[in-house]
């Protein structure tokens, strides 16, 4: 596992162990019947894509390890409503605390303010986190192939599907894509950020897109800053797009979201 990612995942396992000690798995499972039913994350994306519209997963995150604080006036419900008004199909909410300033409460608050399906974006390394996500009302979660062995990914995907959660499987290169395609999930996310240098290059999606089967939905992640970028990725074969920082830094998030989607002049 690559440097910083290995460090993050090790810290995440320690965090999960602490959570399990303070809130045992049985307590989480007992809360599942009271969780709101899943809204259909993959279904919402596919509906937009099949209608010929770009399907946007708009991301809510306070900060990142590489870019620091992203938005000072951080209020997940307000951001969620702005994204919905701008035309987002789904939301992604960062719930990692040490590195991204997130928490599971941000997902609960964002989801409770809109009708959009919500992805829990975190470093998922343990089935406990899958149950935690569903108990909090998440509709989908992220699995990062660079952080997981194939067997681990299969176990986590099965746990997610067993609870009605969709899964977005993230890859960075050909080898990870080959492993991701062994999973059942139709959602394949190509992250354009290189794990070694942290440099973002949209050519990553252009290189990998032809290798993604037609029955999967390709999600382009990282590096989209304009409608032109979105059109370039759509030409490469992406039908879904995960965008966060480029929108989170804008004064008018709703207008910026609409402009990104080409619904108003940029």
TrEMBL record:
Domain Indole-3-glycerol phosphate synthase residue range list: 6-260
Family: Belongs to the TrpC family.
EC number assigned by the record: 4.1.1.48
CDD domains with a match to the protein in the record: IGPS
Record pathway: Amino-acid biosynthesis; L-tryptophan biosynthesis; L-tryptophan from chorismate: step 4/5
Gene that this sequence comes from: trpC_2
PANTHER family cross-referenced by the UniProt entry: INDOLE-3-GLYCEROL-PHOSPHATE SYNTHASE, TRYPTOPHAN BIOSYNTHESIS PROTEIN
The name this protein goes by in its record: Indole-3-glycerol phosphate synthase
HAMAP family per record: IGPS_B (MF_00134_B)
Listed Gene3D superfamilies: Aldolase class I (3.20.20.70)
Catalyses which reaction(s): 1-(2-carboxyphenylamino)-1-deoxy-D-ribulose 5-phosphate + H(+) = (1S,2R)-1-C-(indol-3-yl)glycerol 3-phosphate + CO2 + H2O
Keywords recorded for this protein, A-Z: Amino-acid biosynthesis, Aromatic amino acid biosynthesis, Decarboxylase, Lyase, Tryptophan biosynthesis
InterPro entries (UniProt xref): Aldolase_TIM, Indole-3-glycerol_P_synth, Indole-3-glycerol_P_synth_dom, Indole-3-GlycerolPSynthase_CS, RibuloseP-bd_barrel
